[in-house]
Amino acid sequence: MVVATIEDMTRKKILLFGAGGMLGYALQMVFPDAVCLRHADADITDIKAVRRIIHRYRPVTVINAAAYTDVDGCEDNREHAFAVNGRAPGIIASVCAELGATLVHYSTDYIFDGRNSEYREDSRPNPINAYGESKLAGETAIQENAGDFRIIRTSWLFGSHGKNFVDTMLSLSKQNPVVRVVNDQRGKPTYSVDLARKTQEIILCEPGIYHITNDGVCSWYEFAQAIIPNAVPCSTTDFPRKARRPANSVLANTKTAPLRHWRDAVTEYIRTKGVP
Question: I need a labelling partner for 226 at 20 to 30 A (CA). Which of 40, 70, 86, 167 fits?
Answer without folding.
Answer: 70
